[in-house]
Amino acid sequence: MDLRHDMLTHGVNIVAAQHEGRRAGLAVAWATQAGTDRVVICVGSHSATRELILGSKAFGLSVLRADQLDVSRRFGTQSSRDVDKFEGLACHTAETGSPLLDDCGAAFDCVVEAVHDRDGVKLIVGRIVSAEFVRESYEPLLYREGDY
Ligand SMILES: Cc1cc2nc3c(=O)[nH]c(=O)nc-3n(C[C@H](O)[C@H](O)[C@H](O)COP(=O)(O)O)c2cc1C
After folding, report:
1. Atom 18, ligand 1: which residue's CA is nearest?
2. Cα 43–134–68 angle (5° rounding)?
3. How far is the CA of 50 from the centre of ligand 1 (A)?
4. How far is the CA of 136 from the centre of ligand 1 (A)?
5. Residue 55 Cβ < 6 Å to ligand 1
């Protein structure tokens, strides 16, 4: 069986967290809404943002539009350990303390409800505490097989 990453088509989201004065974010394709009030994200051990999500027990999820490829590349190809990916990008702090992008399709503020560990990858269940519908309607940025 030939198993690879990104065999399904996903939207691209920026998942971000803030903890003890540090903020970080990464591009996440492995994310889904689970019912009306939960989202599930999947974050690997490589991610610096993951440490802040687990530390703050919260994360913000901003859904990217099709015209935001540059934002996906900014958050998906470099580590928050090396750069502040938010520099020059308009964002605000949600109720949980997590950063959300001002400019995106929609945004969710979540608290971590459960964490499942599987081979170093963490499946993180977030309960949505608030949602912002930034655009009435928009084309989502799609990702599959390592390409947009
Ligand atoms: C379009 C796209 C989707 C991605 N999806 C995921 C994902 O679902 N989970 C994950 O752990 N990493 C994913 N990545 C990789 C991280 O975004 C990348 O490793 C990032 O640099 C980690 O940043 P951080 O160390 O600041 O957290 C994706 C990258 C791209 C470009």
Report:
1. 76
2. 60
3. 10
4. 27
5. no
Domain count for the chain: 1
Each residue's pLDDT, cut to its tens digit, for the chain (148 residues) gives 677 777 899 999 999 999 999 999 999 999 999 999 999 999 999 999 999 999 999 999 999 999 999 999 999 999 999 999 999 999 999 999 999 999 999 999 999 999 999 889 999 999 999 999 988 899 999 999 889 9
Q: Domain of residue 113: give its range.
A: 10-143
pTM above threshold 0.70:
yes
- The residue to mutate among 4, 26, 86, having the most atoms of ligand 1 within 8 angstroms of its beta carbon, is 26
- CATH number, domain of 128, equals 2.30.110.10
49 pocket-lining for ligand 1 (C-beta < 6 Å): yes
